[in-house]
Amino acid sequence: MKYLIPFLLLAALGSGCRSVNPAQAFDPKKTPPPTTYAQLNNWAAHPDKQDPADRTPTGLRDEQATATVDVFFIHPTTYLGSRRGENNWNASVEDTKLNATTDSSTILFQASIFNGAGRIFAPRYRQAHLDAFHNKDKVSSQRALDTAYADVAAAFDYYLKHWNNGRPFIIASHSQGAVHAKTLLRKVVENKPLQKQLVAAYIVGWRVESDYFKNIPPCQSPDQTGCYCSWRTWKKQYGRRKADEPNSVCVNPLNWTITDGQYAPKSANLGGVVRPFSVLRPHLTDAEVYRGFLLASKPKFPGSILFIRKNYHIGDLNLYYLNVRENAQARSAAFLKK
Fold first, then answer.
1. What's the pTM?
2. What is the side-by-side strand order in the sheet with 263-264?
């Protein structure tokens, strides 16, 4: 149980775990004010500060100090409505308790994946409440998401102007972060001079339609660059019955192809991370692309008998931690050789 509970808390992360609804329609007057990204405390991860994205499981090394590539990481939903007062449509970037939750969950367990490939920049932003993905008030939900995206775009713009200096970059994201990554890539990167600096994008935990991008292709080989990867993980038996989005892009993080039905066994899984963070668990689960989704067998780890989910959204990245890490390194190396 002690292993399972932190894993579930790692991110209800937009998984459909509903809590307190925002109390009323979106009201700009009640929305926390935007922030400035000149201040390091408004970054959950930044190469000029010590943060959980600098940590690694045992046997791995943080390579940020010598990296020539950057990673812009957009974290998923951690504003769940589980504490008193968490009923606004958007979170405040000055909420210290929420920031601590973000840092100890997604920044540690997800952003750290990429510290072998590049310097990590992960902005805090006025993330939309989890209920924005379920609420019947679609207008308010969209305004909350637009508010969150405005911060992400502002942070990326500040990063480009002050720290990028023409360096290649990776966009990495999960869940709500992937929603914003899609928009950022299409509005700011695609068909712009900036696209030439794109190593790859990891748009994980959210649907990417096959025609969403016109000039950024899905990745179809492990060392392809200028492309994007996306997958959403479901339990295999459930997915066989329910998966039906063949026009959605799904890349298999164990073999890095989009071939429907091509199975990658557990032996191809170099190591996932559940709890404790320091332990890599080889062969944690398998992977197969099936009608727009990634299907996986139930992972085996201490406490997994209680892991009864059908949707493995919370583990999209962590179940394949080392494979994603090494892939980001491989794509970075391939880009730098061009």
1. 0.94
2. 233-235, 293-296, 287-290, 263-264
